Inverse folding.
């Protein structure tokens, strides 16, 4: 009955007497609209498709915040491709002082391939990029980024919305003076002041019209911060050391969303090379040696580093495998909980050292139960940093344990050294203007900050204090172990013959 009523209803007329229904019928039919992405992961998948990125990843949230996660098991039988971003989507720009003899042939071809796919890079920016001056080149990368997210074609204009905004980016260049002071680290405060002064000097000399629209000092700081924290260092060219050899920075959409973790937790490796549609196999040499890159054959990839068991496992990488928290904070704006590469200075002079014996210290920490199968992973990493500090072992060094057995004279010397180290570390901990307990209470309060650097600064100083506290505890455990071992030996020596 409803259908009959509907079909028999007279069509309404416009003022001119023509039927609206007739008017619609005369118009060309529009294709059905695609459903709009309603969630962040759906929007991410749409972007992946629009940029022709081959992917086995999805966007999600985990222990490290927003990151990339697997869509299913991978890497069980062989190394597998997780993400492949065409090189003509990536910003690949020369950096560092240019070699006097290099003509940057391959680097220029890669820029041309980006222009064919996206948009023509303004000549002023290209002039900077292919200057021999390292400062000009670094400014060229930053300006290319600003151009790309504003008028660089649909891929980069869309990806610009995924990049962190100024307030969301934890960077020395964007942090307020109060946030920098929150690190309680003078080296960070000095470095930030130096970097901001350098960018200010560059900004004051910036020629107008290089990028569409106005460029503020904060815009330039943001661009430099993105490049510093997200670019991948690489080299391109057919003739290393000759006329085609260029150091480049690569900004690869989506690849830069993978989070940094401790080396033991890395699940993927980033690579830059060329692809024939099947990853990097057999083709890695092409871009590196300046071979054919026509048609976007090159790519920036993430490949499995170990088997990934199931859907939803986070894809993690290492930005700098040997970086301590100070380097991570200065370059990327975060600190790891339990960074095995951290080091605490120990007292030393030209003639004396309070260095401890590696074998004895490790054995003691295991014997007293500080380092065991039940110890949390982040605590294990702190103990590795503590042992490395007390035994003066650089990050990543493969050192064989020395003999853990000590003579009475060696044990006495170890007690003295451990006491000296513990007191020095106590002095460093006491020198902070706030306590670890107060910092942890502030963290729990979820205080708001002007930029993301504020919370990162608090986490950085908390981790330093946790390391120092764990180090002091470890030194006193070592001292007690040495005394206990010495007493056992004395007791054994005092027993009648045959009972020792």
């Amino acid at each position: 009955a409803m259908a009959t009523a509907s079909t028999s209803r007279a069509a309404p007329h416009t003022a001119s007497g023509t039927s609206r229904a007739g008017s619609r019928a005369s118009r060309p039919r529009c294709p059905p609209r695609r459903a709009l992405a309603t969630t962040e992961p759906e929007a991410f998948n749409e972007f992946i498709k629009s940029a022709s990125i081959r992917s086995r990843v999805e966007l999600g949230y985990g222990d490290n915040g927003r990151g990339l996660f697997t869509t299913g098991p991978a890497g069980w039988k062989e190394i597998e491709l997780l993400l492949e971003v065409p090189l003509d989507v990536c910003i690949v720009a020369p950096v560092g002082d240019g070699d006097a003899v290099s003509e940057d042939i391959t680097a220029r071809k890669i820029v041309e391939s980006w222009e064919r796919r996206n948009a023509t890079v303004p000549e002023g920016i290209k002039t900077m990029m292919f200057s021999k001056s390292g400062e000009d080149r670094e400014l060229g990368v930053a300006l290319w980024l600003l151009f790309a997210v504003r008028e660089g074609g649909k891929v980069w204009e869309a990806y610009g919305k995924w990049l962190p905004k100024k307030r969301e980016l934890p960077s020395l260049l964007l942090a307020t003076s109060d946030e920098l002071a929150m690190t309680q680290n003078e080296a960070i405060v000095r470095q930030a002041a130096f970097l901001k002064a350098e960018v200010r000097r560059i900004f004051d000399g910036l020629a107008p019209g290089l990028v569409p629209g106005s460029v503020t000092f904060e815009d330039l700081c943001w661009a430099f911060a993105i490049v510093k924290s997200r670019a991948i260092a690489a080299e391109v060219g057919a003739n290393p050391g000759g006329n085609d050899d260029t150091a480049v920075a690569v900004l690869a959409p989506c690849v830069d969303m993978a989070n940094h973790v401790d080396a033991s937790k890395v699940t993927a490796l980033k690579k830059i090379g060329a692809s024939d549609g099947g990853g990097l196999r057999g083709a890695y040499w092409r871009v590196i040696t300046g071979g054919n890159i026509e048609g976007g054959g090159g790519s920036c990839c993430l490949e499995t580093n170990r088997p990934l068991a199931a859907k939803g496992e986070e894809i993690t990488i290492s930005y700098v495998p040997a970086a301590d928290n100070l380097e991570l904070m200065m370059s990327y704006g975060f600190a790891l909980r339990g960074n095995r590469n951290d080091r605490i200075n120990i007292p030393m002079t030209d003639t004396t050292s309070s260095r401890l014996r590696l074998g004895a210290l490790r054995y003691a920490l295991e014997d007293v139960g500080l380092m065991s199968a039940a110890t949390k992973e982040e605590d294990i990493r702190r103990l590795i940093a503590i042992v490395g500090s007390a035994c003066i072992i650089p990050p990543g060094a493969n050192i064989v344990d020395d003999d853990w057995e000590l003579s009475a004279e060696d044990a006495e010397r170890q007690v003295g050294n451990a006491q000296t180290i513990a007191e020095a570390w106590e002095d460093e901990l006491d020198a902070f203007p706030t306590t670890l307990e107060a910092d942890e209470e502030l963290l729990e309060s979820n205080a708001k900050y002007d930029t993301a650097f504020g919370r990162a600064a608090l986490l950085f100083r908390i981790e330093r204090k946790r390391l120092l506290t764990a180090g002091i505890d470890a030194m006193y455990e070592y001292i007690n172990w040495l005394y206990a071992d010495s007493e056992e030996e004395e007791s054994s020596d005092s027993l009648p013959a045959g009972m020792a």
Remarks:
- Residues 453-494 form the longest helix (42 residues).
- The longest strand covers residues 232-239.
- The two ends are 107 Å apart (CA to CA).
- The chain has a mean pLDDT of 86.
